[in-house]
Write a sequence for this structure.
């Protein structure tokens, strides 16, 4: 690690006015209209012989052929060198999994494949992915075999395993990044993750602000606090269930582990503040309510979904919108989001409220340097907004390599099926399932609530039909948040911090007279919390484990740093741009220039 330091990378936020930002967004809209015009047309006006309608009939050479040739030659040489730097590392990383394939097909991903059924008195009590179908799936992934049409028996297909083989032209190749092996299904860590998920399933409809007075929440906090293998934040509760007055209302239950995620309210400021959309339009962040219903608590329903049959979808309540105030609200936000939508909202909020980092691409004073030129496509709002979208694609491809080609981790709902069948005595996987979950109070409480030991789901369809590790949402969220930290002042305090009331109808002020106030909220911490909310929102639904989230953040961050490196390389040399600075999820300061990535 480099020990050199750079000065002046952080300062107070530059106050970019909301009107300036919205005017820029309007300009983007106008440009979109021009680009979208059909060839031979001029926005509905009569076609003319020259752009601008000057009446001229001649054609002038704008760029000489020799100049064009020199440019294209330079571009070729630049791309060739960049490709060499990006994809020719000294030694590619080892891609290792946890070896759970040796335990049998039940211990690897197989949702949406046909299942072998275990029956009791003529009734299905369990099912596991057909071993031959799993082997053919793995063969198709590895290029040594092919799935049979009857291996997929429902109406849902496997979600895009071949995307892992797609090539990219920006940043590191997605096979050149890696994450640690997922915890084994037999590990105490996975057992603790399942304990957390069972508690989350029982508390989906309890407001975060009510946890401190809720008996189920306090039992959850006490059990998780006793588990040595639990890797989440330590819940704030005494052994006897008492809660100190200064404890946060949510007891730090189900929070993320990124820096700042346990400071202040449970929900990130970027999920509650209004979003500036265009001049005069600030969109609130209220969601239509999902029904307070849990799914797949019956073996027949569970088995149908495991084999890829799409159940009837629920209907959102179009007459009632609320701010995110409970786990169910987070599941709704990340059930219907459009990939990078939530990080893009954060970018708009940051632009509108003026948190631009001094020295960043957004604060690059092109007019001051030249006296004649302003930034827009480069060093303007187009720079940051396109970056949020651009980095999402390689992040998802990197996740897909790990999901399909490396780990094949089964979804929590599948593991819940194995837990249920073991607890009911229909199969015996007790040697391969941790006593941490089999002997847990969470499992007992879930059975009392639902009539089975299955892990209830917030979505009727459960998880998507792709493996669990890492979470796609956490990977693209980690990438997008990393990019945003490169453009905005991480140390700036959030102005007018707020949080939803217990029923999500109003927003309350987060002030120092609250007994649980634990300091100001900063841009960097709230961006980290946004990534945690996005990822753990999927855990609230029952479709991911905690380590799916934590591994995804780091994978997304690695992709984003490589993306920023290419971004720094591609700016015109004449700009003399000094590069991007940011803080990683591990708290390290990083400076990214055309010359490389320096850890300070």
């Amino acid at each position: 690690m480099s020990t050199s330091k750079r000065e002046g990378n952080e300062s107070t936020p530059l106050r970019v006015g909301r009107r300036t930002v919205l005017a820029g967004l309007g300009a983007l809209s106008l440009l979109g209209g021009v680009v979208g015009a059909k060839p031979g047309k001029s926005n509905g006006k009569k076609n003319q012989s020259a752009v601008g309608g000057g009446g001229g009939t001649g054609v002038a050479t704008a760029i000489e052929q020799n100049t064009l040739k020199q440019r294209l030659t330079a571009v070729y040489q630049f791309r060739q060198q960049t490709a060499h730097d990006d994809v020719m590392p000294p030694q590619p990383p080892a891609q290792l999994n946890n070896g759970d394939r040796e335990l049998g097909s039940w211990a690897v991903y197989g949702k949406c494949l046909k299942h072998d059924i275990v029956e009791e008195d003529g009734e299905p009590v369990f099912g596991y992915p057909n071993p031959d179908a799993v082997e053919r799936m793995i063969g198709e992934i590895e290029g040594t075999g092919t799935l049979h049409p009857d291996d997929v028996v429902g109406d849902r297909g496997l979600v895009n395993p071949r995307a892992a083989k797609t090539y990219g032209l920006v940043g590191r190749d997605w096979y050149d990044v890696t994450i640690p092996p997922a915890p084994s299904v037999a590990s105490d860590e996975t057992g603790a993750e399942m304990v957390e998920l069972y508690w989350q399933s029982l508390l989906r409809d309890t407001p975060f602000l009510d946890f401190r007075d809720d008996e189920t929440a306090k039992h959850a906090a006490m059990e998780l606090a006793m588990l040595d293998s639990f890797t989440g934040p330590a819940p704030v509760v005494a052994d006897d269930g008492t809660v100190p007055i200064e404890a946060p209302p949510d007891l730090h239950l189900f929070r993320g582990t990124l820096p700042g995620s346990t400071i202040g309210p449970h929900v990130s400021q970027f999920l509650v503040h209004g979003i500036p959309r265009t001049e005069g339009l600030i969109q609130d962040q209220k969601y239509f309510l999902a029904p307070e219903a849990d799914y797949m608590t019956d073996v027949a329903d569970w088995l149908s979904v495991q084999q890829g049959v799409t159940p009837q979808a629920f209907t959102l309540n179009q007459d009632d919108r609320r701010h995110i105030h409970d786990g169910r609200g987070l599941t709704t936000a990340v059930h219907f989001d459009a990939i990078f939508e939530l990080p893009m909202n954060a970018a708009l909020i940051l632009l509108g409220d003026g948190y631009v980092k001094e020295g960043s691409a957004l604060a690059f004073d092109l007019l001051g340097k030249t006296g004649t030129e302003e930034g827009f496509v480069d060093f303007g709002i187009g720079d940051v907004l396109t970056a949020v979208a651009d980095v999402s694609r390689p992040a998802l491809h990197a996740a897909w390599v790990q999901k399909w080609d490396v780990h094949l981790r089964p979804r929590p709902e599948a593991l819940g099926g194995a837990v249920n069948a073991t607890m009911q005595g229909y199969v015996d996987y007790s040697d391969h399932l941790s006593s941490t979950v089999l002997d847990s109070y969470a499992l007992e409480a879930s059975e009392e609530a639902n009539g089975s030991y299955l892990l209830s789901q917030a979505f009727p369809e459960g998880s998507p039909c792709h493996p669990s590790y890492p979470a796609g949402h956490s990977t693209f969220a980690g990438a997008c948040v990393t990019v945003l930290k490169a453009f905005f002042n991480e140390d700036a305090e959030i102005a007018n911090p707020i949080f939803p009331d217990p029923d999500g109808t109003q927003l309350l002020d987060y002030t120092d007279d609250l007994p649980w106030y634990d300091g100001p909220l900063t841009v960097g911490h709230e961006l980290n919390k946004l990534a945690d909310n996005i990822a753990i929102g999927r855990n609230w639904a029952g479709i991911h484990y905690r380590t799916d989230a934590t591994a995804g953040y780091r994978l997304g961050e690695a992709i984003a740093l490589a993306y920023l490196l290419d971004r720094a390389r591609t700016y015109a040399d004449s700009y003399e741009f000094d590069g991007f600075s940011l803080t990683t999820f591990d708290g390290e300061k990083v400076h990214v220039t055309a010359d490389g990535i320096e850890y300070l």
Remarks:
- The chain is about 40% helix and 10% strand.
- The two ends are 7 Å apart (CA to CA).
